[in-house]
Specification:
By secondary structure, the protein is of the alpha+beta class. It has 2 domains: about 5-40, no CATH class; about 60-175, Cupredoxins -  blue copper proteins (Immunoglobulin-like), CATH 2.60.40. Helix content is about 25%, strand content about 35%. The chain contains 5 helices and 11 strands; from the N terminus they run ααααβββββαββββββ. The protein has helices at about 5-10, 15-20, 25-40, 50-60, 105-110, and strands at about 60-70, 75-80, 80-85, 90-95, 100-105, 115-120, 125, 130-135, 140-145, 150-155, 165-175. A 6-stranded mixed beta sheet has the order 2-1-4-9-6-7. Strand 1 (about 60-70) and strand 2 (about 75-80) form a beta hairpin. Helix 1 (about 5-10) runs antiparallel to helix 2 (about 15-20). It is globular.
Length: about 180
C-alpha cells in the first residue's frame, strides 16, 4: 500500500483502521502524517480561523482615516502618526486626494498584523499585503488586526516623496498599554 493510499484510507475509514495500516511504516511515517495534518489545519483566512479568532474577525472595527497627500499636492500623510492596540480590529480607510499616485508602504507593520481583507472599488483582496498604491482620487479600505507590538516606519516609495516628508510612524501597543 502506498503512502497516498494510506492517507486516503485515513479520510475514508476510522482512525484505528488508519493506525493499523500505518504501523508497518513506523513512527516516522506517523509523525509525517501528523505534522502534515497539523500544518494543513493552520488558519490562513477568516473562514478557517479557530473559534476565538473568528470572534476577532467579527468584532466591530475601529475606523481610522488617512489621506495620502492633499489637494495642494503636499507630500505628506494626513495624519502621519498612528497607534493601534494588538488584538483589536481596525478599518484603515486610505484616500488619495492628490493629483499624483502615492504608496502606503509599511512592510514591517504589515508583517506584524493579520490582514482580513483590502477593498478597493469592486475588488476585495485577501492575504498578506505589504504596500498599497493609490492613484489620484482612489480610496481603499484595509481591515486588519494588529498582532505584534512595536513601532514601524511608514513611507511613500515613489522617488523623492519620502525625502520630501511623506513618512510616518505606526505604533502597535499591547492590550495592557491601551491606545
Amino acid at each position: 500500500m502506498t503512502f497516498v493510499q494510506l492517507l486516503n484510507s485515513f479520510f475514508d475509514r476510522s482512525v484505528s483502521a488508519f493506525l493499523t495500516q500505518i504501523r508497518p511504516f513506523g513512527a516516522i511515517a506517523a509523525i509525517v502524517v501528523c505534522v502534515g495534518l497539523i500544518l494543513g489545519a493552520a488558519p490562513v483566512q477568516a473562514s478557517k480561523l479557530s473559534g476565538g479568532d473568528r470572534l476577532i474577525a467579527r468584532q466591530p472595527s475601529t475606523e481610522v482615516r488617512v489621506s495620502l497627500g492633499n489637494g495642494s499636492d503636499a507630500l505628506k500623510f494626513f495624519p502621519d502618526q498612528f497607534q493601534f492596540v494588538a488584538g483589536k480590529r481596525y478599518k484603515l480607510v486610505l484616500n488619495n486626494p492628490s493629483p499624483q499616485k502615492h504608496y502606503f508602504t509599511a512592510k514591517d507593520f504589515a508583517d506584524s498584523i493579520w490582514t482580513q481583507k483590502v477593498e478597493a472599488g469592486k475588488v476585495e483582496v485577501k492575504g498578506a499585503i505589504h504596500e498599497l498604491e493609490l492613484k489620484p482620487g482612489a480610496e481603499a479600505e484595509w481591515i486588519f488586526v494588529p498582532m505584534k507590538p512595536g513601532t514601524y516606519s511608514l513611507r511613500c516609495t515613489i522617488p523623492g516623496h519620502a525625502e520630501a516628508g511623506m513618512v510616518g510612524t505606526i505604533t502597535i501597543t499591547s492590550d495592557s498599554q491601551q491606545a
